[in-house]
Structure formats: C-alpha cells, structure tokens
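Quick one: co-fold with zinc ion.
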Amino acid sequence: MLILTCPYCGATAEETELQAGGEAHLKRFGPGSSDEEFHDYLFVRENPKGVHFERWRHTNGCGKWFHAARCTTSLEVFGTYPAQTTEPPQDIQDKISKKRPGWSWREFSCASAKDAS
Ligand SMILES: [Zn+2]
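Sure, here it is.
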C-alpha cells in the first residue's frame, strides 16, 4: 500500500484517497514546437525502475495537486512537495542521493536501470 502525506493539508492518505496524475516535471511543448517535441511531450515517459517523480491529487481531502518522489520497486517514499515547482526540492534530492548512490536529477532513468542490472 502506498501512503503519501499531502504537503498542503498535512494529511497522511493511502492511495485510495488520492488520484494519480502521471509523471511530474514534464517539459511542455506547445505552438511553434517541432512534431517530435510535441510527440515526446504527449507520449514519451520515463517509466523508470527505481526513483520516480509523480503527480498526485488529494481527491478525498483538500483537492490539491502535489508531487511525490518514490521508488517504483520498493514503494519507498522520499517525500512530497507542492506541484508549483520545476524540479524536486534540494532536501528530497539529497535524501534520494544518500539512499541511492550515483543517482542524480534527470539522469535517474538510465542510471537506475543500469545500476539495477
Ligand atoms: Zn491535502
């Protein structure tokens, strides 16, 4: 069972009280972008085996969207934080780096997959 703490209201909720919203920190491409950039924005996702950043909504609570950093294999949660950020807070990145040596922001998918094999 996945348990997350909403960074807005502080409530600890299991995943049945939340709504998953897919991968966090996607770079949006709009008018003027190439077809490939728009395709990647719409369809390409990291889908890592390991550290993942996700969007969640506290549906049965305050209703706000937030981000969560967690491991897809162990369900370990590294932290949650407000959705109005372009990258994870430094304290969460430091926590992940401490537990997953060699991990770094935006190099997690290839690095974690290679390390795991
Ligand atoms: Zn909440």
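If it helps, The chain has one domain: 3-116.
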